[in-house]
Each structure stands twice: as C-alpha cells, then as structure tokens.
Amino acid sequence: RLVAGNAEIVLDGGNITMRCTHVWDVKGSNHAFTGPASDPASLPALPQGVAGVDPNWIELTHHYDDLEPVQGATYKVKYDNGTTVQGTVDDKGFARKEAVPKGGGDVQWGEDVRDWLGDKPGTNAHKGGGPAADLVKGLLA
Fold it and tell me: Is the pTM of this model over 0.90?
C-alpha cells in the first residue's frame, strides 16, 4: 500500500487499486485503460557465456621460419597474474584457449613431435661450398 495525501495505490496479489478524492488525471500519450487482457512477457536479450567465466581467449600459432607448422609441440603460458596454462598445438601448429586471464604473459614452447631428419638434400646450392668452406676444409686437412 502506497499512500500520499488523499491518494493511495493498493497492490493486492494480482490486483492494483487506485483511489483518490479528486479527479484522477493521467498525463501521457495514448494510454488505453481497457478491460483485462493477456500479453506474454518479453525478456531482454541476455549476454552469451557462462556466469563467472572470463570471456577472454588466446590463440597460439607455432611454426618454423619457412612457415611450416611445428606439429604437436607442447606449450606453457604464464600470465602476468601468475596463472599458468599448458597444452599442445595441433598438426597445424595451432591452439586456442578459452577463459584466460586479462593481461599479458609469456609463452614457452616445446619440441616438434616428428623426428628431425636433418636438412633436406639440395635445399641450399651453396651448402658445403664457397671460399669459407674451402678454408675450413683446408684447416681441417
């Protein structure tokens, strides 16, 4: 019950009663006070995500200088707040982590899971040749 001067508004369950001793004047644009009706309630759009989970994320990509991916390498991310997250990149050298802390951090990378086969033959035409290589060969002879 809300009372002000000689007017009152009474809320009783689903009923609202307004009483006053003088003229009740409603100022506004186009308010129809017709009989009872029904209208479904509409809710505002709610934010996406899970309550209490930070929506920040990080994507990591690990590759060699020639842009070939480092496959299956482990990684460890230490964030500025002290939190540490570990994981493994996929065969494209990619990983994504959800719900990470805000701010920066440092990444430590592990090794490629594939066996190293050495340099591919014929990839460098000057490998093992030239004046410097001849000098080294001469010193080692």
Answer: no
